[in-house]
TrEMBL record:
Sequence ranges assigned to domain B12-binding in this UniProt record: 1-145
UniProt entry keywords in alphabetical sequence: Iron, Iron-sulfur, Metal-binding, S-adenosyl-L-methionine
Protein name per its UniProtKB record: Fe-S oxidoreductase
Entry-linked InterPro entries: BchE-like (IPR051198), Cobalamin-bd (IPR006158), Cobalamin-bd_sf (IPR036724), Elp3/MiaA/NifB-like_rSAM (IPR006638), Methyltransferase_Class_B (IPR034466), rSAM (IPR007197), rSAM_horseshoe (IPR023404), rSAM_sf (IPR058240)
Family matches, as PANTHER family: ANAEROBIC MAGNESIUM-PROTOPORPHYRIN IX MONOMETHYL ESTER CYCLASE-RELATED (PTHR43409)
Amino acid sequence: MNILLITLLEEINPLGLLHLSTFLKDNGNQVTTAFVPLNPKEELFGIEGNRVISDHEISETLDLIAEKKPDLFGMTLMTTHYYSAVKLTKKVKETFPEIPIVWGGVHPTLLPEECIEYADIVCRGEGEGAMLELVKHLENGESIENIGSLWVRDKDKITRNEIKPLTQDMDSLGFPRFDWENNYVLYDGKMQNLNKSIYQQCVPRKGRIYDVLTIRGCPYRCSYCSNSSFHQVYKGKGKIVRGRSIESILEELEYVKKEFDFVGIINFQDDVFLVKRDEGWLENFCNQYKEKIGLTFACKGSPREVSEENISLLKKGGLGYFQIGIQGSDRVNREIYNRTTSSRNKIIEASRVLHKHKVVANFDVILDDPFATDEDTLEVIDTLTKIKKPFLISCFSMTFFPATVITKMAKERGLFSKGKDGYILKATQAKRTYLNNLVEIAPRLPAFVIRTFVKHRGEKLAKVILDAYIYIHFNIIFKIMYSISKYPRLLSFLKKIRYSLSTSWR
Ligand code: SF4
């Protein structure tokens, strides 16, 4: 079958849609994949709201549909793309009423009712099995009404099928591969064939970092995360956390090395890389990775899994960066976020282990949370001053995504309007308050300076100095870096200097 799949994700990523398109292609279908990133360049300086797809972007997408004449049009979306997906779907329906439209991804999985209003078919949960069955039924002219995981609309009648059991054999799903001839991207205002040079322009750091998944699912249930809702959706559908074999992971990494000679860092995007696997898995994996791949890698995990033994094995394998969640104060983590395995002491201990092994820790922190008080933010700042440098920080503004536990709590307590609505606002832009600014600059200034700012909070002079620092750092320096990004050699030289300064272990 001739299928066209599109994604509105801000950047081109091998995970998600590309995995599905590779799977469908490997099963005998002609699949075109189009990336319609909603203007990644504007992301550099941040936009407060989620941008809705423009008429021009819709027109370029319609031209591609006219050219490819697919038998099925699919779109993957998250909450942030909902309004764009609605707008695009209406236009596709108007122009090509004969093509069935299927929506999949996180948002349709959790909120199928509001998606089936626009799409003909909603695919809930992991899409490979259901989509393959859908394609076969359509090809054979059979009814699609009773396919597991699908909601199907036929005029006013909606059939809501149960979610299929989760695929337990992850290796059977293969791994995502680029198919340059059949991959498209809306770049520079035009829908065009994706090639390696455009790919490098569209992804961060010119494609030096490549994302790979070794497991699916997360064992935890943080209240603000869609994974907490997935535990409900997949209840009784089999084990949620499922890993790939070492052979399958290495096969993908060998493909990546061969196809993308500019990749320097493998970024394992698993929610919790150190999740419990078979006895001896980690040691075996690290040894083989070192021998066959040999690239620096990054991974994520909770402080609970960071131990001397684990980190020393990972370091020998090539671990360079470890992303770890602080998120909130102990009270907020325990009472609001359901992060019972995380505590300030564990975070500080995990940071000590990572520092000892010279692994750069990247801490995630949630700001602008109406459930948190200034005392909670001060505790987070205090934790950061106890962590040895160098480390990195990623701040997120609390965003109430629908169908999460925290959104329900916020609505019940009348706090929803004080947070960001996931449909319309970005999660990455924290408010520029005095305390938020201190969190963001904690990795850049000595601990005693941060403590001095904390001590003098509320004083005008302290605020003026902090605002000036923030302005210079986030406006002037970022803009200069953006301007010189047109001169790659100069940029790379400056980055080397900055890197060598920021990784002097203190
Ligand atoms: S550990 Fe991370 S991925 Fe897992 S539920 Fe919590 S926030 Fe979500």
